[in-house]
Amino acid sequence: MRLPKGRVLRTVDPELLRALLRYDPETGALFWRERSPEMFIPSWEVAAGKAQEWNARHAGKPVFTTRTNGYLMGRVSSRALLAHRVAWAMHHGRWSEDYIDHINGVRDDNRLANLREVSVGENSRNCKRSSGNKSGVTGVFRCGDRWRAFITYRRTIHRLGTFDTKEEATAVRKAAERRFGFHENHGRER
To answer: Residue 24: how many CB atoms within 10 A of its CB?
Structure first.
């Protein structure tokens, strides 16, 4: 989710998330916490029963179970939220205005060590290989009996040359990735 600079994401307060959920940064899992009767509005007797009923049904169970394009999603305080953004907000005490990138490319791996806040440009430099890629290497394609290499950086296509072998084209492409600061996982199969 990309927001214009200076615009604050209006969603569930990170402190409320910490009160309602438990995040395990080692596994990336988010679970519902037990709720006290004070968290329910009606009179104390009714609230105690509601709390007991809620805790029996939900406490200790995973919060985010629905998959949307590989991401874990769920509802907290009537808001549809993505698990990786919630994990980030809970840990850092604020919502990110930029992208939260899964470093290894696994969209449901929400371990803190696998999440990083990045710009749209940084996020695009850590993408998997396109499903339409036929050469097996991002930015390398066959042209007749030769191989061409290119790289897109800051919305500009840089033509890297035409080569006799796929290996030469791949080496030039990988060097360009390092020069332009692409993540080492960029172009992975999945």
So the answer is: 13
Rounded to a whole number of angstroms, the distance between the first and last alpha carbons of the chain is 21
SS3 168: helix
Distance, CA of 174 to CA of 137 (rounded, Å): 10
Annotated domain spans of the chain: 14-120, 125-179
The band of 8, judged by pLDDT with boundaries at 50, 70 and 90, is very low
Q: pTM value?
A: 0.74
Alpha helix (H) residue ranges in 26-130 = 44-58, 83-92, 120-124
Helix, coil or strand: residue 22 = strand
Q: Using the Cα atoms of residue 116, residue 121, residue 123 and residue 128 in order, give the sign of their dihedral.
A: negative
Contact criterion met (CB below 8 Å) for 160 and 151: yes
Q: How confident is the model over 167-186, as pLDDT tens digits?
A: 999 899 999 988 988 887 77
Domain 14-120 falls under CATH 3.90.75: yes
What confidence tens digit (pLDDT) does each residue in 81-131 have? 999 999 999 999 999 999 999 999 899 999 999 999 998 888 887 777 787
Q: Report d(CA 83, CA 118) in Å as an integer.
A: 17
